Amino acid sequence: MAILPHTGTPVRVPVRAADPKYTSASLPSLTLFPASLASLVSGVSMAGTHSLLGEGNKMHALIPPNAAFGAVAVSGGSGGVPAARAVAGLAAIGANAGGGRERKLLQPDVKPTDHPCPKRHRPLLLRLIVLRKILLLNDGRDKVLKIVQYAAKVLLWTRLLSAVAATQRTPSAEKALSAMVPHISLARKLVRFGASLGPLEFLFTETHSITSSHIFKFLANINDLFTSLADDSVTLGKIGVINPNPFFGTWADRLWLVGIGFDSASSYSKLKEANIQIYQLKEKKRVLELQASPLDDQHVDGRGSDAGGVSTASTLESIKMKLSNAQKQAWMCQISLAKLAADSIFCSFDVFGVVKRVEKAGGPHKQLQMFQDVSALVAACLGTWKLCASVENK
Questions:
Q1: 200 vs 181, 205, 221, 223, CA distance in Å?
Q2: How far apart are alpha carbons 27 and 22 in whole angstroms?
Q3: pLDDT tens track for 218-262
């Protein structure tokens, strides 16, 4: 019986008989093997002619788990598989062992590439692709231009550019930024031109019925239609096609505020439905998890049904997926309500003339104007974030 020098608890490893062509004469050519491993090969190569333990063509070597070349489990059996293959496995593990540390047994069907890689941040290229998809949409271009417009306004309110120009003795960019803001506003109006076709498509193609939900959608689309027509009239007046008329601008703001109310009611209704669905799915998930535990125990003991366990597991996974989707929907509804709240602040200032009234009264009208611009910037950022999320999910 071949016993290698060892420390700790030995491990009994069955090894098949060696091929006659692998003999001790070939050991000098194995320059990669250490001397202790070469002695093992020499002992294993002689196992083909001598039965060490009286078990046919198998031999058992006592190998400690903390040996210099590690530990490996080799399955025995009949057949002429060379022992050099087992030794090659020992050498491969020995390359990773060292310092007397214990190593885990490597299974033959596990590869290092099969282990999951750590999550990494999405590269910048994919972000640019999402931005490109957003800019292909009229709504996306409008929101991006809105961010630029009101970010420039807020920057002008801070007087940061003037301070930088005075410090560095360079021409101020404040005049250029002030001249750019009206052009961006006109560009946004041109991007939104013709938006009335959307409500018209709904009014002529959708099947209408006398229910509360359909009446609500019908009134919301009628309001969107007249809002878009008023905006288009303002745009035509800006570019000189028709005579400018403040009537269209006033009613465009009023109808937009009414549309914000319709959108807020719709988002609140969706949020309420999503919360109800989340509560129901959580209850179903809790009940299924309680039912899954005894099924798993019965399956382990051999008394359960495989079909019942698989069905319960698949149902649980389906509920988890639905729950995740419902939570995402609730989150998006909350973002929509926050965006609509910022829009309502901005629009209310124009409809009720808050800034002009405070200015006539000698109040802090400049601070109110800046607050209005900040609310518009917040609404633009939230709307763009929502659009990015919807584009990424497609």
A1: 32, 8, 8, 11
A2: 9
A3: 999 999 999 999 999 999 999 999 999 999 999 999 999 999 999
Q: Are 218 and 208 contacting, i.e. CB atoms less than 8 angstroms apart?
A: yes
Contact 83, 111 (CB under 8 A): no
Do residues 210 and 228 make contact, with C-beta atoms less than 8 angstroms apart? no
Which contiguous run of DSSP H or E holds residue 141? helix 138-158
pTM (two decimals): 0.64
Residue type for position 34: P
* Sequence letter at residue 114: D
Q: Which of 39, 46, 44 is nearest to 14 (CA)?
A: 44
Give the separation between CA 252 and CA 229, rounded to whole angstroms.
8
In the block, tokens 């016993």 appear at: 3
**Two tokens, residue 164:** 């930088």
**Whole-angstrom Cα distance, residue 110 to residue 114?**
7
Task: Tell me the two tokens of residue 31.
Answer: 């320059």
